[in-house]
Please model this.
Amino acid sequence: MIDAFLAAPLAQGIGLAGTACGMSWPLFRSRIGMLLVQLATNLLFALHFALLGAETGCAMNLLAAAQVAAAVPLGTRPGFRLVYLGVLPFIAAGVALTWNGLPSLFAALGFGVVSVARYQTAVRPFRLIMAVALPCWFGHNLLVGSVPGMLSDVVGMTLNLAMLVRPRRPAVETVP
Model:
């Protein structure tokens, strides 16, 4: 694995910045907070994968950034559901145009499941579906040699699961 860092230090350095974001999104309690950190993650990993020559990973992360931008207002502006769903055909086209076998399959599966997660407006279903998506991205990252991606996925999976199983605090009532 250290060979991957030495072979492409700039790519791996940018990937580490994406890793920091990818590891921290599960710590946010709000859907909007999680999505905004995922936006930064997607942009950094798009550049990371571009520098590694992993075209599908790059394309999927650029499309994911667009999807996150459309997902943010879903909770308050239902009309954005059509905008959000409008990104899906571009995902399919991106996979087809950048197809590179098994890594592309894992990236497509990961992004497909993430798409379902981001469509949720409640935090718990969002987290539950993300728990299925992250192992798919780990498979892609393993196959393309993205050490930062694998690190981000493992820590992200762990923190997301910890947030899912932690005891829920009752809502705080406000007194008028």
About this structure: The chain has a mean pLDDT of 86. Residues 31-52 form the longest helix (22 residues). The chain has one domain: 2-164.
